[in-house]
Each structure stands twice: as structure tokens, then as C-alpha cells.
Amino acid sequence: MPLRIHFTAEDLARTRLANGPGPMLELDIALRLLQESSHPTRFGAWRRESLRRLPPRVGRLCDLIPPTGWTVEFLGHATAGTIEEALDRVRATPAARIRKDMETWAGHDHRRPVPAWTQALGSDGRLLRELADTAAHAHRQIIAPYQQRIDALSGADQALRARQVAHGGLQALLSGLNPRHIRWKPPVLELTMASGSTGDIHLAGRGLLLIPSVFGAVYPALDDTAEPQPWLTYPVGLRDTDLFLPPVETARTLGTVPDSLAALLGHTRAVVLWTIAHRPGCTTTELARHAGISPASASQHATVLRTAGLAHTTRHHNTALHTTTPAGHNLLGTTG
């Protein structure tokens, strides 16, 4: 049996897309991925590099964020705008709240032993600060080196979702979030969770915040008690081989941008880049039409821009959707 989320008309009216991945939520999901070995094509290189960088003290953070199951609630803050904002909230958590959250967390899974060191969390402010500092360090090592890539993938996904809504409404959006594990059967959204959780959730007019996730590439994550609105993650709409390059490859690709400027001085390629920037998510056919060139030429120029790190292409079924990367926006003197 799946987990079932029931929607009313009011829920559908209040359901919305987040602007991008939540930094603390991405860290949570990334730490879970590091504790197992699934999806080597998508995450293998990232996992090897990240494990090499992280110090042993991250083990305490992983104690509270297991590969499956619940994260202790005071480490949540999924909708915080920055990692700094999220960790400031963690550091400011009252001792009574920490003790309550730890008791609740321990009761969720009796099969998992509660680490002895956590007994001092509710009374030792230094230990809490060290835990938050460890989370900040983990973010710098396993998320920050890929931030430009994450931003580019998120921007491309937003263009894809906007196209789904424009062409098929909210039904098309919900049906296309993650067809293997998120199924829209009006008025119910059925979820297959990594934990195997089942049951029925009624949103009661609150709607649902849909949060894209680069690291949550398979199963959804859900918090139906979040305030002011329950949230659900879905994977950015990309193929397995598109997700992460090793850091050295990312740096090499981005490092070619200055050397590629000469290739961008031509009038046609500049028009193509400008068109992609002002029409994010355009197809190759649309790009050709607005740039005044043939589809074959548009495809060729988009490939050059993509190789230079200035554009990104997302595959949706048999359609290529083009968006600019932050480097492309910077080159044009615009903001992302």
C-alpha cells in the first residue's frame, strides 16, 4: 500500500512550487546517500569524493540523520533560505525542545539504538554548537563545490515545470513529478516512500509545497506536519548521467569559459545565448524560430554553449529544453 495524500479543491489552489532546493534539506538527503551505495552512475563519483573529504566527526551528524527513517526534528528547517539561516536556528534551539525532539525521534524506530553521546544534547550547549558547526563543514565539503551545478539543474527544472503547468495545468505537474514513486490519481497523490510508510494524509486546506531536490533523485521526502505548509520533495527532471560530475571535471568545464569567449563573439551565437536567457526552457525548435536560424544550427550553437558552461539542456521525453547557467547570465550582464 502506498502513502496517500488527499487533496480538496482548496488544497489544489494552495499547492505551489518552491523556488529551488532547500539547502538544509539537500544536506539531509546527501548525508543519507553517503551512508549507502545505491545509484552508482548518478552518485558514485560524488560519493567517493565526499567521503574522502569528510572528517570522522560527521558520524555524529549521521547518527541523527540515518539512511532511512526520521531525522531528529530540530535538525530540519527544510524551507530555510540559506544553510546559515538553518544552522542559526539549530544553534538557537531551546534545551527543552531538544529533549522533546530526541524522545520523539528515539520512539519512531525501536530497532535503532540511541547513541549514548546524544543524552547530553539537551543540557550541553557546546555539544549542540559543535553539531551545527559539523553540519556547516559537511555542507562546505559535499554541497558547496557543486553549487553552480545545482543552481543550473534547478533552473532547468523550474523551466520544465513551468512548461508542464502552462500546457497541462496542475494535473500535468503532479503527474510528471516522479511517475515511478509519485502517482496522481485525482484527488489523491500516492507516494512510494523509501521507508515503506503507508497510510492516509489529509491536507485540510493547507495545500502542499513541492520542493525540487537534486540529491533526492529517487524516493520523495515528506513532512505533513511542517508549518506553515506541508512539503514534498521531487527529483529534478534529469537523466541519470546528467546529475553530477566529479569536482575536478566541474572545475575544468567552468574553467573553459574565458577561453570560449572568442567562440561567442560571433553574432549568431550571441543571439542564441541571449534568446535562451530570455526564453528559459525553450525547445530547440523554439530557439531556432526566435533566433532566426535553422533547428540544426540552433542545436549546434546550443551544444557549443553547453560545452562552455554557459547553457544547460534538459531532456523531457524527446524534447530538449535549454536554459542558461549562472555563468551564461553573468556573461550577458544579467542576473539569474
In words, what does this structure look like?
49% of the residues lie in helices and 13% in strands. It is built from 14 helices and eleven strands. The chain has helices spanning 9-14, 23-34, 40-53, 58-64, 83-91, 95-108, 125-142, 147-175, 247-255, 257-264, 267-278, 284-291, 295-307, 326-332; strands spanning 3-6, 16-17, 182-185, 188-191, 199-202, 209-213, 222-223, 231-235, 282-283, 311-316, 319-324. The strands form three sheets. It has a four-stranded mixed sheet with strand order 3-4-1-5. It starts with a strand and ends with a helix.
Gyration radius, to the nearest Å?
21 Å
**What letter string, H or E per element, gives the SSE order?**
EHEHHHHHHHEEEEEEHHHEHHEEH
The 3D shape can be described as globular
Report helical residue fraction. 40-55%
Largest sheet: 4 strands, mixed
Report how far the terminal alpha carbons are from each other.
42 Å
> What is the number of E strands?
11
Per DSSP, the total helix count is 14
Q: Specify the structural class.
A: alpha/beta
- Beta-strand content bin: 5-15%
Q: Kindly report the spatial arrangement of strands forming the biggest sheet.
A: 3-4-1-5
Give the uncertain stretches in residue-range form: 239-243, 245-262
